[in-house]
# Entry
Amino acid sequence: MLSHHVLFWLKADTTAEQKASFRKGLESVKAIETVKSIHIGTPAPIERAVVDTTYTFSLLLSFDDLAGHDVYQVHPVHKAFLDEFRGLFDKVVIYDAQ
# Structure
């Protein structure tokens, strides 16, 4: 199994409507055949020094293997998401784990 965790920091001037569209865009990647599970979230209200709550959205995907992840990376649905929403990103951090 491979987990792909993406944290998105959207630009400060992103509107509520843009955030709603962004979330729908994130949801669109579940249509990619190699995505086994998906979780979309926002920071939990946890106040501990070791917890980063500065991001806007979290996307956690799981794949059977690295090959499934590689299919996702070049899939037209993923590319369409990036094309539509890349302009809203202020920062993105990705963690992949196996």
